[in-house]
Amino acid sequence: MNFQQEYEAFLHYHRARRAGERLRRLQDGLGHAEQAFVESVWWPMFNHFQHLHPEYEIQDYNDGYRYLDFAYVLPHFRVAVEIDGIGPHWRNITQWKFSEHCQRQNHLVIDGWHVLRFTYEDVKERPRLCQRTIQQLLGNVNPAADSPIATASSVERDIIRIATRSAHPITPQLIAQLLDLHVRRAQSLLRSLAVKEWLTPASGTKRIRSYRLHPSRRNVRLW
User: Fold this and answer.
1) Burial class of residue 155 (count of CB atoms within 10 Å of its CB; 0-12, 13-18, 19+)
2) Which residues lie closer than 8 Å to 116 by C-beta, 6 or more apart?
3) Which controlled-vocabulary keywords does the entry list (predicted)?
């Protein structure tokens, strides 16, 4: 497919899974700046829109709701992408509104989001600069060549990161849900990671139902 076909399929996919305000925001497509971002920056980099969510709803720090221009969401890694225009909204912003805007971004970071902001001018005139910024951030997901995790497959790394960040033992059902895998495939991966001593059984002896990170791996750099 070309960009326009993929773009329409991208919007259709998200509209079909939304209702209420979340749907209304996509009824007429993306705004001019947001469409410029996916066409000039995102599409040339990836040639797909997997894991990218437009007008992504999040709960605000003051118990309301707000919408990110885009969210790139993986099980262990979330990026908020905002496109800022230089228009009346910014020229006429009050001190109170600017303070609220800064607090919202602070709370995104506190909640574990990586935040990228691009001006509309950069999207239109310097798309390669935007792409390099994204590449530098996403490079943090990939491990260094000398890291012990470098030999693990992509899905194995996802499981290891989930185990690292989980306060509770992980199960095949949880991994299947988070990574969109069949439960049997998740079971096989967990058993394999236990053999490689990335994970250790957390319950059961003959029939292992859950796993946790192996104690010897707690200080390993994951990217």
Assistant:
1) middle
2) 79, 80, 81, 82, 133, 134, 137
3) Endonuclease, Hydrolase, Nuclease
Residue 112 DSSP class: T
- CATH 1.10.10.10 segments of the chain: 148-217
Question: How far apart are the C-alpha atoms of 57 and 65, rounded to whole Å?
Answer: 7
Specify the 3-state DSSP secondary structure of 136.
Answer: helix
Backbone φ and ψ for 59, nearest 5 degrees, come out as -80, 130
What's the topology of domain 148-217?
Arc Repressor Mutant, subunit A (1.10.10)
Dihedral pair phi/psi, residue 184, rounded to 5°: -65, -40
pTM of the prediction?
A: 0.60
DSSP state of 144: P
Each residue's pLDDT tens digit, 8-44: 999 999 999 999 888 998 988 899 999 999 999 999 8
